[in-house]
Amino acid sequence: VISKTLFRTDPVVVAKNVKGYKSMGTKIFIATEDSTKNTLVLSASEDFGETFHVVRFPLGLTEMKYTLLDTSEGSTFINVEHDNGVWGNVYASNALDDDFVLTLEHNPRDGSGKCDFKAFAGLEGIYIANRYANKDSFDKQTFITYDKGGKWERLPQPEKSECSSDDASNCRLNIIGSLDSGKWYTNKNAAGLILATGSVSQYLINKESHLGVYLSRNAGWTWNFVRNGKYTFSMGNRGGLLLMTRSDMKTSNVTLSIDQGIKWEDCDITDVTSPIEVTDIVSDPNLETGLFLISGSRNGTGVLVSLDFSNVYDKQCEGHDSPDAQDSDYETFEPSDLRTNDCLLGRRTKFIRRKQSAACIVPKLNQTDIIEVKNCSCTDEDFQCDYCYIMSDNTCIPDPSPSCSSYDPQAIPNPCEDVYFISNGYRLVPGDTCDTTTGGTDKTPTAEPCPGKKEPVEIIITSDSGGGYPWVVIVFSIIAVLVAAVGTLWWYSGRNSDLREHLTKCIPESYLPDFEFSQRPYASVNTNFGDDDLEEDAPEIDLEDSTTNS
Question: Are the CB atoms for 77 and 66 separated by under 8 Å?
Answer without folding.
Answer: no
